[in-house]
Design goal:
The complex is a heterodimer of chains A (449) and B (239). Helix content of chain A is 55%, strand content 18%. With 449 residues, chain A is an alpha+beta fold. Classes of the chains: A alpha+beta (449), B mainly alpha (239).
Chain lengths: 449, 239
């Protein structure tokens, strides 16, 4: 408030106040002067009262009303300060304070929204409970993992929601010891592997517990595949190496001097070297296909020439084993986009497997049919079949079922087939009944010129 | 204030029942998996852990009794407490069945199994599923769910009959396998009984919600000697 205004206010108070008081004193000394003293005193006091009302009481009342009705965080129009009195200064300060407060609240709101977004987008399940174990925050990943509704979960207990004794025990341990606890639990009989961490927290907003659950199922599966791969590749390389080393030792021990025996051993050594060479080259090829470095020469073609070339290629094999081969191809099949040599390689591999695992006098059927968008090729045999447990893993590198372990082959054929078919934008899968036979399916998209 | 203590204690007991249920659910699955894998060490461990189930059960029973004695629960709450005592009892019994199966693994010993176990693990998986859903029905007070679960008991009964017929035929043909066949039958029987206990749990959940005692197990069959089940009238054990 400026100085001039302040002096004016002071002057008004002093002037009208003094006038009023003077009037009263004059009236006290000279009651006869009432006729002119009374109006002067009354006017003075009335002016003083009006001035007080305008300048002090009204602004304070408006301020009080504004404070009473203000809700936290609500953006409200500031009260108008009409004069320059001290009371109006109070109003202006209040307006300023309210603006600051609102800015702060909206900033906090933004931060909260950001945190909430981060929370919901996290891939780990995050659950926050109060001291009694009632859930206060349940993020989207948690809702997804436990197949629950995130909003309905709030307010219920951790036990009710997760219904898993090991997690419940872990939570009890955490509440007893007040230290972070962690464990890995197996949920739904191996269907889910979860890493669970529970830690206590204390803050201004109250104490509670944070539960973080990471889904390790995929990691665990990949780890198994990697471990098996290493163990298999070492095993597959070690077997021919052991044979080679035995051959060399025998030759060193004197067999070298016996020409016919030496030649026999050298032939065996050459065979072992061939096996290893084939395996290493298949491994390299698989690595190249997997990394997409094998260019496919895709041309529009029909299945017929590829299927016939495959059968010609394998003729000697199935005839030797006395197997029946049925080829059921409809005369007109829509064209597909394929690399002739690569697709033939896949079919040869699948047929070769079918022949290998089918006992004498069994039947192998190669058939194809056109569906809406795809051509489905089926290679069915009446062989030994594949156990349900093994079925999902047969396309992994070196995955061999015990009975296949003894037979020849590198264990890479199906893995290569899978990647080649995927490179054709197709799909490959198998169905099998143990003891009755297996059927391998290839689905390839129909070519539309 | 007293009301708040009461609500908290009720919640704690309900959570304890669920924790007991989950423990038992996994014990049953583990017992059969261990039997399939023929792991004696694990069997012994599972049998030794049975005391934890018993401790939980006694804790629930004790807690419920204290609530009745000190808080004078009203009709609805009293029903919940009564149901919790019964459900905990049934769960403890299922825990004993799991322990029984673990013991059977030890009794069979080093002998090779007559045939790979397929139907018995399947029975266990189905029973575990029923038990899990009955616990959900209890915690969510879901009447519809509690009413549908016992229908799945028929599938378990069918599997049991199948196991029974198969083992019986095998034992007739190879009398030297009677001992092991008998043990395996016991294992299957234990699971079948466990599934019946789950039906009882569902009955208690319905009682807890509606106040009505219903009999859901229509094909009650404590004595089950069917070579062909149609020849034998089911014996009602009346509970």
């Amino acid at each position: 408030m400026d100085k001039k205004n302040r002096w004016l206010s002071l002057f008004c108070f002093v002037f009208f106040g003094t006038m009023g008081l003077l009037g009263l004193i004059v009236w006290g000394n000279n009651p006869a002067a009432l006729w002119w003293v009374l109006p002067v005193t009354a006017v003075s006091f009335l002016t003083l009262g009006w001035y007080t009302q305008q300048r002090i009481i009204r602004p304070i009342r408006r301020l009080a009303e504004a404070i009473e009705t203000a809700a936290p965080g609500e953006q409200k129009a500031p009260i108008l300060a009409t004069t320059r009195s001290d009371a109006d200064r109070l109003i202006r300060s209040f307006n300023q304070w309210q603006r600051n407060q609102n800015d702060r609240i909206s900033l906090l709101g933004d931060e909260r929204q950001l945190l909430f977004t981060v929370f919901s987008q996290m891939s780990d399940a995050v659950i926050v409970t109060n001291r009694a174990g009632h859930v206060t925050i349940f993020n989207t990943a948690a809702a997804h993992l436990f197949d629950l509704d995130a909003e309905e979960a709030v307010g219920r207990t951790l036990t009710e929601l997760l219904l898993h004794h090991e997690i419940i025990d872990l939570w009890h341990r955490c509440t007893d010891q007040q230290t972070e606890q962690a464990t890995i639990v197996d949920v739904r009989d191996g269907g889910l592997f979860l890493q669970v961490n529970i830690m206590p927290f204390a803050g201004d907003g109250g104490d509670g517990y944070i539960v973080i659950i990471s889904d390790l199922t995929t990691v665990r599966r990949l780890e198994t595949v990697r471990r098996d791969f290493i163990s298999n590749v070492s095993h597959e390389l070690k077997t021919p190496l052991a044979a080679l080393s035995a051959v060399v030792e025998t030759l060193q021990d004197g067999a070298l001097d016996d020409r016919p025996i030496a030649e026999k051993f050298l032939n065996r050594a050459a065979n072992e070297v061939d096996t290893m060479t084939q395996m290493v080259s298949e491994l390299l090829e698989l690595a190249r296909i997997e990394s997409g470095r094998v260019p496919l020469r895709l041309t529009p073609t029909t299945l017929h020439p590829i299927a016939h070339a495959t059968i010609d290629h394998l003729q000697s094999f199935y005839k030797r084993k006395n197997l029946h081969l049925d080829v059921v191809l409809p005369p007109h099949l829509p064209p597909i986009l394929a690399d002739h040599a690569r697709l033939q390689q896949v079919l040869v591999n699948l047929c070769h497997n079918a022949f290998k695992f089918t006992p004498e006098n069994g039947t192998v059927t190669v058939s194809a049919e056109a569906q809406a968008e795809h051509i489905i090729v089926k290679i069915a045999d009446t062989g030994i079949g594949i156990a349900t447990d093994d079925l999902p893993r047969i396309f992994e590198r070196f995955y061999k079922i015990d009975r296949a372990r003894n037979s020849s082959g590198t264990g890479l054929g199906l893995a290569i087939a899978k990647h080649l078919i995927q490179a054709h934008n197709g799909d490959i899968w198998a169905e099998s009944v143990e003891g009755k036979g297996s059927t391998f399916f290839i689905s390839l998209p129909i070519y539309k010129a | 204030m007293a009301r708040q203590v009461f609500t908290q204690e009720m919640q704690r007991l309900q959570d304890e029942v669920l924790a007991l249920g989950s423990t038992v659910e996994y014990a049953l699955g583990d017992a059969v998996r261990i039997l399939k894998q023929r792991d004696f060490e694990e069997s012994r461990r599972l049998m030794a852990n049975d005391w934890q189930i018993n401790v939980r059960y006694h804790d629930i029973e004790q807690g419920c009794m204290e609530l009745i004695a000190t808080q004078q629960p009203t009709a609805g709450d009293l029903r919940v407490i009564a149901a919790m005592i019964r459900i905990a009892t049934e769960l403890e019994r299922i825990g004993d069945y799991a322990k029984g199966i673990a013991k059977i693994n030890l009794l069979i010993g080093d002998e090779k199994l007559l045939k790979p176990l397929v139907d018995i693990p399947q029975m266990a998986t189905k029973t575990q599923g029923m038990l899990h859903r009955s616990l959900l029905a209890f915690s969510r007070k879901d009447l519809a769910l509690a009413r549908t679960i016992p229908d799945q008991d028929d599938e378990i009964d069918d599997l049991y009959n199948q196991v029974y017929r198969e083992l019986f035929t095998y034992m007739l043909a190879h009398p030297e396998t009677i001992e092991q066949g008998n043990y395996l039958l016991w294992a299957a029987h234990n699971i079948e009984r466990a599934a019946d206990r789950v039906t009882n749990i569902c009955e208690r959940v319905i009682y807890m919600i509606t106040g009505q005692i219903v009999e859901l197990d229509q094909s009650s069959d404590e004595l089950r000697v069917p070579i062909s089940p149609s020849e034998v009238e089911p014996v009602d054990r009346g509970s």
